[in-house]
Hints:
By secondary structure, this protein is of the alpha+beta class. The chain has one domain (6-73). It is 38% helix and 17% strand. The protein is built from three helices and three strands; from the N terminus they run H-E-H-E-E-H. A three-stranded antiparallel β-sheet has the order 1-3-2, covered by helices on one side. Helix 2 runs antiparallel to helix 3. The chain starts with 5 loop residues before the first helix and ends in a 9-residue tail after the last helix.
Amino acid sequence: MSRGSPVFDILSRRDPHGYFVIPLKPEGRELAEKILSQHLEPGAKLVELRDVILVRIKSRSVAEKIVRAAEKRGLLADTEED
Length: 82
């Protein structure tokens, strides 16, 4: 996991409530739901915004699985600000 990778960027910080926040394209919802159901994460939340879905999760290992799977499929949303 290199410092410039999306995996490192997402997993290196948490929100104020202790959740990892993973931005996905809307097409990534099914992938996130599948991984979350496999790992029985009751505290995970999917937040739907207009053009992005945010996955909020406390488990680092499950967050890493979601980020890696989404990155492989091109489903991570671009969060760069202009």
